[in-house]
């Protein structure tokens, strides 16, 4: 009897040991598996597995963009249709990445949270009838789009903390840069500016251009200024008045005595034939902020005199403009203008860049479409917390030049 009990215990005991052994075995195997599968030994295979599981990244999915608001009364934001598909993006806008649909039709997709991006124009108030989307998906990007300087913002940005995921403005640190004009290197075809540090070509030592030389001899007036906002944050009106005390500045538009209708070809021609300088003074002193006036002037045979908050070397090649903020006083600026305007060789030398660069304007929607396709963009969450500070802190009230 006692023998039987003992052998029974023995069996129990050996079963327990077996179980324990199996447990240890399984545990060891699991640990071994983890170690073998760890990046320590297996880094390439892990990546390979992951990439094989991914769908082919080359086949681009179409992204959809909804224009939620108008752009200054234009529901099409200057595009040619209410809805543009990949074909229009490729053939009309000439977008390198064109797999997008852009629409202002709110019912283009069955639900508002299906759009990949929704664009809001911040220089206009939200419409009372259609404030903000009621549903929002965490995968969507809300885009803060504006071409005007911060002083023209018509949104209460302190109410929009964390609302926007992307910015689309003229500022070079925006997610999508939306400039008034761009310069292309004629030889390479590459867009070189605006950019943080454009690879400018060296200005040739000698440059001559008989067209400008001949125009120069007929230019009898110093400077023209076209202006419709008379009192500005930049105080450009004071700079212009002080210049006017030194030489004639012809002021066209609401703030002056002269008139020339917008779009009248004679107005543009007289910049070629009559005037030496074109005042491209901005209404605000903000980083990277220059307007179409500057680019319009560059199309004519006239030297722009710029005044603004931008670092103009990010926008234009050296010696193609005269920056008022590079001078300490208005007298210094005026003296330099008299020198350049009085010497035809010097005057003509400001047009050297035309042999190397061409002005173009491209659509920011190409870049927005491309951004929505950047691998990794859909895997990352980003938003602007204090959008008001991001936007407003780029402006100043004080300029360099003294008057
Ligand atoms: C530039 O060209 C003009 C007109 O063709 C000519 O009169 C002038 O002498 C030239 N200037 C120089 C420095 O070659
Ligand atoms: C956009 O921002 C919101 C926060 O307001 C966030 O919940 C969402 O995930 C962000 N989307 C993307 C695509 O980054």
From TrEMBL:
Entry coiled-coil feature ranges: none
Domain Fucosyltransferase C-terminal: 216-390
Main localisation: Golgi
UniProt membrane topology term: Single-pass type II membrane protein
EC number: 2.4.1.-
Localization of this protein: Golgi apparatus, Golgi stack membrane
Pathway connected to this protein: Protein modification; protein glycosylation
Domain Fucosyltransferase N-terminal: 62-181
Keywords: Glycoprotein, Glycosyltransferase, Golgi apparatus, Membrane, Signal-anchor, Transferase, Transmembrane, Transmembrane helix
Stored InterPro entries: Glyco_tran_10_C (IPR055270), Glyco_tran_10_N (IPR031481), Glyco_trans_10 (IPR001503), GT10-like_C_sf (IPR038577)
Chain ranges passing through the membrane: none
Family per similarity comment: Belongs to the glycosyltransferase 10 family.
Name this polypeptide is given: Fucosyltransferase
